[in-house]
Amino acid sequence: MSRPRPLVPRPDLADTVGVVGEFDLIARVTARAGTAGLAEVGPGDDAAVLRAPDGRVVVCTDVLVEGRHFRRDWSSAEDVGHKAAAANLADIAAMGAVPTALLVGLACPAGTSASWLEGVAAGMAAECAPFGAAVVGGDTVASAPDSDSVVLSVTALGDLGGRAPVTRRGARPGDVVAVAGRLGWAACGLAVLRRGFTSPAAAVAAHRRPTPPYAAGPAAADAGATAMCDVSDGLLADAGHLAADSGVRFALRRASLANNFVSGPLPQVAAALGGNPLAWVLTGGEDHALVATYPPGAELPEGWTTIGSVDDGEPGVVVDDVPARQVAADMGEVPGHAHFG
Q: How far apart are CA 318 and CA 303, in angstroms?
């Protein structure tokens, strides 16, 4: 493992947003925003205008705060842009929809580098490009005088393409529980960075730029998934949301999780740092994998792995019959991240 190098030099004072000004900043950032295929009116007007082929629009919002969700000495501007977009695009996919556009609200100190913000915009554009989506508008504001943190509020829009939305409330006893995407990699990368290292590169990259399985969401909807959400706060926590909202119990299998998701850099980093790779799989967030339930006998789409079943009983999650909170506690963890917790 190698020690990190600072990724962001001191900003050129002539390039700070306090000198560049709001409208020049907007022009520079907008130039990096990309083009949304469904936009009839894009950035620069009082509001954007998008076509909605399905007749319905899927909408979600996520807020990223510097120091809580990202650090500029750990991540490049482009990394932050990718991560901010991915956190929202994954929520759109979790409803069974395809992303169409983003709106971004920015609060930052006057001393923030305008070039750094251009990099954030470029990262967002790159994350959106495969869908023909882009940033179509937003707002900028100076943060409070005593704040030195950048805050990004991102709203994502999506199109269902004629599908019924897959909500958190449809799981039924007899369904199977499955996951698409990676689990524990972002938490593993965060553990590496917290120890002051920057390798293994795959783990650190997973924290800096999550890779949600976007296509798995619409595929799950087409295959009849009964409930779904993205794993942003940890598998135990987010599966718990599905279980609670559906009024059922999720019975997960430790062996299936260990055999299918303790992979890549997780065992190596756990051995080096004295951690438990399965703890990252069960409680680590920000990979933005998808967890869903399917009716018994359903053919799971490519990329989905069965990890358990849906049972009658007290709503919640058990792993080999042990309640999720006890499983996490036995590993020295909590089931997942909760703001204000």
A: 24
The one-letter amino acid at 213: P
User: Do the strands 289-294 and 304-311 form a parallel or antiparallel pair, or are they unpaired?
Assistant: unpaired
Task: Give the angle subtended at the CA of 92 by the CAs of 95 and 86, to the nearest 5°.
Answer: 140
8, two tokens: 């962001």
pLDDT band with cut points at 50, 70 and 90 for residue 9: low
What is the torsional sign of CA 258, 259, 263, 269? positive
Side chain identity, residue 180: A
The CA-atom distances, in angstroms, between 107 and each of 45, 66, 207 are 20, 11, 23
Report the predicted TM-score, pTM, of the whole model to 2 decimal places.
0.93
268-295: per-residue pLDDT in tens? 999 999 999 999 999 999 999 999 999 9
For residues 272, 276, 282 and 288, what is the CA-based torsion angle, rounded to 10 degrees?
A: 0
How many Cβ atoms sit within 10 Å of the Cβ of residue 108?
26
3-class secondary-structure state, position 98: strand
Q: Going edge to edge, which strands form the sheet with 304-311?
A: 227-231, 289-294, 176-180, 304-311, 249-252, 316-319, 322-323
Token pair in block for residue 193: 């960075």
Residue 281, CA distances (Å) to 175, 231, 234, 253, 261 in order: 22, 11, 8, 13, 7
Residue 334 confidence (pLDDT): 84
Q: Map residue 181 onto helix, strand or coil.
A: coil
Locate 41 and state its tokens.
Answer: 């009116």
Helix axes of 114-128 and 77-94: crossing angle, nearest 10 degrees: 30
Cis-peptide into 200, omega within 30 deg: yes
